[in-house]
């Protein structure tokens, strides 16, 4: 038997009803904040992620699904391609490629699968789904303002509340800008020098190539050492400090609670200034339901114009998991309003005609088959969770009135064809 590949899974009804509920709530909230949808390709040039996300990150150095193109054309041959491990780099590439700033398009959202070769476990998959948004644009359009950071964070709080997810915690930090990074890296290297020999091999490499990434380390034995290291928050320049203070002030004024976490650096290299994660207690080890931050230099590093931006991605798998704690997907699943039971030869065509009429009235119809005995039709209708069963037999067709039975109460009435939509909707 062929099974789904490790780390991938089928999303089945009734759970898919929950997925749709989350996606449509997100679309509603995005609309209220004037975000528009973008859909970028599922694979991109490997170089996009190497340059955008950063060579030294776990994502790029260990987790990408990468292959060499076997295209025949000279321009394709040997190109390195990668299934997108995240969507921010793709959105910024598209922003540059289509000069979206010329069209005033500076608030974009996406919903779709991402791919990372991580060790699969509860809440962690190799194909997982993100709902994300990016507010990006020329500084003249206000994209550098702390008001954008606060707006994006407030929008997230609104969405989580709308979904009925209680007990989330917003962890907030500022990772500064390039100015601060140089001084911080020096201090970090100095602090690491005497201790790095006791740390894991990844950290020993990071200490040389990109010391900030030491904070991504998950090895338990390294944590007490990491706790003693200097924090980026101690190195913020005046502008970054002011920016962070403004973000916190707006959040406080609009009533979005947050906790400061100066160890939070996020596992992607493009972040500057505001960085954040929303965590949820009920999820266990994989407790980050979403993450994001500002990435003011990303556009330039991908060859585009200056375009400060801030965004986030929600782990949809994890949001759905936290909803499963409280709501039942079963109750969100669409059930047929009526099950049509054609009774006897020639009745399939009659039932099809009637189904077509009812569906035009937005009634959810399930269809049986004229070869079914009445008992089997009743069983099938009940199993499908239909509210009514409607018998379509020769007598009914002749009279142009049909036997409509309420499957819950057992009440049965004969209803003229023209009255059926209203009667069923009742
Ligand atoms: P990220 O923190 O790598 O950020 O991913 C965001 C969220 O995706 C995580 O908080 C988690 O909920 C979910 N996630 C990540 N990996 C997995 C996995 N293997 N299985 C299930 N869920 C997962 C980004 O991807 C950035 N692009 C976010 C961003 C947008 N920053 C600025 N704009």
Write a structural description.
The chain is of the alpha+beta class. The chain has 2 domains: 15-177 and 237-324, 2-Layer Sandwich (BirA Bifunctional Protein, domain 2), CATH 3.30.930.10; 335-425, Anticodon-binding domain (Rossmann fold). Helix content is 37%, strand content 20%. The protein contains 15 helices and 16 strands. The protein has helices spanning 15-32, 46-52, 58-62, 88-97, 146-163, 178-192, 201-209, 223-227, 238-254, 298-301, 316-326, 347-360, 374-384, 394-399, 420-425; strands at 36-37, 43-45, 66-68, 80-83, 107-115, 127-136, 168-174, 259-260, 272-280, 288-294, 309-315, 338-342, 365-367, 388-392, 401-406, 412-416. The strands form 3 sheets. The chain has an 8-stranded mixed sheet with strand order 1-5-6-11-10-9-7-8, with helices on both faces. Strands 13-12-14-15-16 form a 5-stranded mixed sheet, with helices on both faces. β9 and β10 form a beta hairpin. α5 (146-163) runs parallel beside α9. It starts with 14 loop residues before the first helix and ends with a helix. 37% of the residues are buried. The model has no long low-confidence stretch (mean pLDDT 94). Histidyl-adenosine monophosphate is lined by residues 86-88, 116, 118, 123-125, 128, 130, 132, 134, 267-268, 288-293, 295, 311-313, 315, 317-318.
Summary tags:
16 strands; single chain; BirA Bifunctional Protein, domain 2; binds histidyl-adenosine monophosphate; about 20% strand; 2 domains; about 425 residues; Rossmann fold; alpha+beta; five-stranded mixed beta sheet
């Amino acid at each position: 038997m062929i099974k789904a590949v490790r780390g991938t899974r089928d999303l089945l009804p009734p759970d898919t009803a929950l997925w749709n509920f989350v996606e449509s709530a997100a679309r509603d909230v995005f609309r209220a904040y004037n975000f528009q949808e973008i859909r970028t390709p599922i694979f991109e040039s490997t170089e996009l992620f190497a340059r955008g996300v950063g060579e030294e990150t776990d994502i790029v150095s260990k987790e990408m699904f990468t292959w060499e193109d076997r295209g025949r054309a000279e321009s394709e041959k040997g190109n390195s391609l990668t299934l997108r491990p995240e969507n921010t780099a793709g959105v910024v590439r598209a922003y540059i490629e289509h000069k979206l700033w010329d069209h005033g398009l500076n608030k974009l959202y996406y919903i779709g699968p991402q791919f990372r070769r991580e060790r699969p476990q509860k809440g962690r998959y190799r194909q997982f789904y993100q709902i994300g948004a990016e507010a990006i644009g020329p500084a003249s359009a206000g994209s550098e303002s702390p008001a954008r950071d606060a707006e994006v964070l407030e929008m997230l709080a609104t969405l989580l509340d709308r979904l009925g997810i209680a007990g989330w915690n917003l962890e907030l930090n500022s990772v500064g800008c390039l100015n601060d990074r140089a001084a911080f890296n020096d201090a970090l290297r100095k602090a690491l020098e005497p201790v790095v020999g006791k740390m894991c091999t990844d950290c020993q490499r990071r200490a040389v190539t990109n010391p900030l990434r030491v904070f991504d380390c998950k090895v338990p034995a390294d944590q007490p050492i990491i706790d003693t290291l200097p924090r980026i928050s101690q190195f913020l320049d005046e502008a970054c400090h002011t920016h962070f203070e403004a973000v916190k002030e707006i959040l406080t004024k609009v009533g979005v609670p947050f906790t400061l976490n100066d160890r939070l650096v996020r596992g992607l290299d493009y972040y500057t200034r505001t960085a954040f994660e929303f965590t949820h207690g009920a999820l266990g080890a994989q407790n980050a339901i979403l993450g994001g931050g500002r990435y003011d230099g990303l556009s330039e590093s991908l060859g585009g114009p200056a375009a400060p931006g801030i965004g986030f991605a929600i782990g949809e798998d994890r949001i759905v998991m936290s909803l499963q704690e409280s709501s039942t997907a079963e109750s969100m699943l669409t059930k047929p309003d009526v099950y049509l039971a054609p009774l006897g030869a020639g009745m399939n065509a009659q039932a099809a005609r009637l189904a077509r009429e009812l569906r035009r009235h937005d009634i959810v119809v399930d269809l049986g088959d004229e070869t079914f005995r009445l008992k089997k039709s009743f069983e099938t209708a009940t199993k499908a969770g239909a509210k009514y069963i409607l018998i379509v037999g020769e007598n009914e067709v002749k009279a142009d009135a049909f036997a409509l039975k309420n499957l819950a109460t057992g009440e049965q009435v004969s209803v003229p064809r023209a009255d059926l939509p209203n009667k069923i909707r009742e």
